[in-house]
Amino acid sequence: MMKGPGIFLAQFMSDAAPLNRFDTACEWAGSLGYKGVQVPSWDKRCIDLHRAAESKTYCDELMGTARRAGIEISELSTHLQGQLVAVHPAYTEMFKVFAPEGVRTAAEMHKYGSEQVKLCLKASRNLGLSAMPTFPGALMWHTVYPWPQRPAGLVEEGFKELARRWRPLLDYAEEMGVDCAYEVHPGEDIHDGASYEAFLDHVDQHERANLLYDPSHFVLQQLDYLDYIDRYHERIVCVHVKDAEFRPNGRVGVYGGYLPWKERAGRFRSLGDGQVDFSSIFSLLTKYGYKGWAVLEWECCFKDSQQGAEEGAPFIARHMIRPPARAFDDFAGGKVDQQAIRKVLGLDS
Fold it and tell me: In this structure, which topology does domain 3-344 adopt according to CATH?
C-alpha cells in the first residue's frame, strides 16, 4: 500500500526552533503523526547536498537522525534547482534568488541547476530513495497565451531544447536508479498532460521521466485531476496532497488579475478547506497500485502553517486505503472448482 502521511519541509523550515534544524524538525513532524519527511535539498538546515552525494556514511547518519524521531526520508526535492535547468533570460532577475552569488545569467543557472540535480540524484541513491521530485524549468512559458501568435516551429524547438538539457540528467538518473518526478505546474513548460506528452516524445519516452501528482495545480487550471490519474498513473511516482479552490467571478478568473492570494479566484488551501475530492483521488491511486508516499505540501493564505501541519497528518491518514486481503464477495474463499464451473456454464449437463 502507499506510504504516509509525509510532510514536505520546504514551507516549514525557519530560523526559529524547532524548525531550524533537521533533527528537531523530524521530531516536530513525528509528534504530529507524520511518518515521513520530504526534504528540500537546497536547504542547508536540512542537508548538505554535496556531502550527501559524496558520503554514504553521512547519508546513513542523516537517515538515522530521522529514524530516531520515528521518521523516514521519503524523497529529496530539487524543485528550485530543477527550475534553473531551463530559465529564459527574461526571468533571470526573478530566479536569481534560487541560485548562489555569482550565478546570474541563464547559462550559469543552467550549469548550476544541472550540477545540483545530479548531486541530488546521487544523494538519493545513497539514501536508498527511488524518486526525486523536481521542476523541469521553462523556456516557452512567456508564449503560453501568445500575442502576437507564436512563430511557426517555436514549440517544437522549445521542447527539443528542454529535452537536450534534461536527457543527460535522465540518463544519469537511470544510472543512479532514481526517477525524476516532474511536478506538472503553471510556470513550467510541462504544465499539463499535453505538454508532458510532448516532452516525453522528445526524450524518447525515457523511463526515468516520471511525475509528481499534485491536484491543486489542476484545480487552478481547471483540468480534470481524476482523469489525469487514469491517463498517467503508470508514470506517477510521487504525490503531493495539497488542497485548492477555484471561485471565479466577473472580475477575476484563472489568471488572477495580479491580485494577492486572498483575492484570487484560484487559491491554495489547507487540507479539507478547498474543493479537491481526495476520496476519489486516493481510491484511484489505490486502484492503480500506487506504492509511493502521500506527502502534505502546505500552502494556504488564510490558515497558520502550524495548524495546517497539525490537521494534515490525520487528514491524510484518514484517506489512505489499505487494499483488501480478499474480494468482498468471496464468501467461501475456496479453491477453483473446475467441475462446478462447467456445470454453471451448462457444459456437463
Answer: TIM Barrel (3.20.20)
CA angle 5–7–13, rounded 5-degree value: 160
CB within 8 A of 301, min separation 6: which ones? 260, 261, 262, 267, 268
Taking each helix axis as running N to C, give the angle between helix 225-232 and helix 193-202, from 0 to 180 degrees, rounded to the nearest 10. Answer: 20
Do the Cβ atoms of 275 and 244 come closer than 8 Å? Answer: yes
Q: Where are the domains of the chain?
A: 3-344
| Residue 156 phi, psi dihedral angles, 5° rounding | -60, -45
Determine the Cα–Cα distance for residues 181 and 204; give it in Å rounded to an integer: 16
* Cell output for 222: 481547471
Q: What is the mean pLDDT of the chain?
A: 96
Least Cα distance to 2 among 319, 253, 262, 258 occurs for 319
The 10s digit of each residue's pLDDT in 105-150 is: 999 999 999 999 999 999 999 999 999 999 999 999 999 999 999 9
Least Cα distance to 202 among 211, 213, 190 occurs for 190
pTM for the model? 0.95
Cα distance between residue 241 and residue 168, in whole Å? 30
Cell of 342: 462447467
| Nearest CA-CA partner of 238 in 64, 82, 61 | 82
Locate 215 and state its grid cell.
491536484
Give the side-chain half-sphere CA count within 13 A for 24.
11
Report the SS3 class of residue 260. Answer: coil
Contact by Cβ (8 Å): 84, 99: yes
Q: Please say whether the beta carbons of 211 and 240 come within 8 A.
A: no
Question: Cα(first)–Cα(last) distance of the chain, in Å?
Answer: 44
d(CA 286, CA 283): 5
Pick the closest to residue 40 from 71, 64, 9, 66 (CA basis). 9
